[in-house]
User: Fold this.
Amino acid sequence: MTATKKTDKKTICWNAIVKNESAIIERCMSSMVDQIDYWVVVDTGSTDGTQQIIKDFMAKHKIPGELVERPWVNFSHNRSEALELAENKADYIFLCDADMTLEVIDPEWKSQLQGAPAYSVIQKNTAIRYSNIRLVNGRLTGRQRYRYWGATHEYCDSIEGNGTSELLTGIELPDFTDGGSKSDKFERDAKLLTAEIRKLKALEKASEAKNKKQWKKVSGIVEKVSSNAVPSI
Assistant:
């Protein structure tokens, strides 16, 4: 399904993963309500009613979209899954987390969207300002499409691995860093990184088994890694 608003400007699809964001999600959505044409949000297990808040808010403002529920794996897996679901829903996919807001500097900022595969936006908090890819071309195909890499502290790049982005100056993203995933950040990150290390060790074992032509063992290890199961080594 594609965006339904009639406009000569580029259409925008808001894309995010959320979990237990009921305290802040309306702040995020209110900041972009007059800037987006469609939305695709993936909920990874909210128990506080976040899902219904999003659906009710968007219905009230008559913005079409999709709320999809998926199990939590890690940041790159779930963000990439959400990004894939948003492809071809609008000209550009706007990657904005629940604990951010959209600050419009130039009301004509969409005129800057001239076909680049991705655009970086200034993301800021009380301590730092930096650019980060926050808009991805929704019409890309094949290995030109963008995905996320890294179980945590993830980054966005093309599947090909040579993606480029241009700096978009018409908007900025204040980051309040108060999202639902922040409460157990250090413990969560430690678990995610430990799982990635175990996967790398498993792939080393698979390589050794391949050299010994132990194909059944290779297949078993690769299947576990591909399914995001953490192998025991």
Summary: Residues 1-7 have pLDDT under 50 and may be disordered. The chain has two domains: 12-174, 185-226. The two ends are 44 Å apart (CA to CA). Residues 185-211 form the longest helix (27 residues).
